[in-house]
Amino acid sequence: MMRYMAETELRLLRLLSLLTAGRTWRGDDLAERLAVTPRTVRRDVDRLRELGYQVHSVPGPAGGYQLGAGSALPPMLLDDDAAVAVAAGLRAVTDGAVAGMDEAAVRAAAAIERVLPDRLKRRVDALHAAVVPLPSGTPPVEPSVLALIALACQDSERLRFAYTDAAGRETRRHVEPYRLVSAARRWYLVAWDVERSSWRGFRLDRLADPLPTGVRSRPADPPDAARFIAEGMTTAPYKWQVRVLLDAPASVVAARVPPTVAVIEAAGDTQCVLTSGSESLDAIAMHLIMIDIPFTPLSPPELGARCADLARRLAAAAGRAASGG
Question: Does pTM top 0.90 for this prediction?
């Protein structure tokens, strides 16, 4: 009797593992995979439903069984890699980017690690010991605010909120939300500002009292949200906006320049254009030299002149060093 129960439980776990793949399974295919009859598959599906899993029966020639979301959280089934990824990811969540998530993430990680086999727990412990988080001074975002804005983006529902800019000025905004972007441990909302008739990026930690209006409208011609925020971080706030052509593929340059520093665009297979900003042309010229890839200044014209001046100064310094002066 005990052996029969163990075989049944093992088969249920195998069935659940197949269903969590996200596809629709025909009953005959499941029966073949599990080496049982279709009638046994139906009984096992009923047992999963009793445990709280929403296993839907999809009608039609292409139908079958499909795992859906229910009203309560059923027992979870994860393979080795997924379990390690979830446990390690939950520990990483405690970087303070979202307010109140630290405690919840610690509880969830503890619950998962409590049932991990020793061989998997060692992998999670090794990751935790080897990774040192860099503290962030960014104010955390309330999870309720994050969820509300995400739903507004999904439902194309207009929002009103108070916003404080970098200079400390507070304004009221009426927007059509489009996308959320996470960058450098900060959250940004890309939205169409209805009253200013332009696309804007809003830092969520500077946003207060978001209020859904009940009005649904989808903004026309939305930008690439990630690029829009990247350009706002790397170019728009600075005195100088520069563009240079680098003699290397975009993938090579992107591996050396983080997206919070510059926007990289491919210009064929062997070149790319870098767009960035700076308060000092000398500083950006030196940064380009440190990338160690040949480049051609495109704009502004002053960048080429500053590069030439730096080249003369550096050559003079090298000459003095060589002569012992």
Answer: no
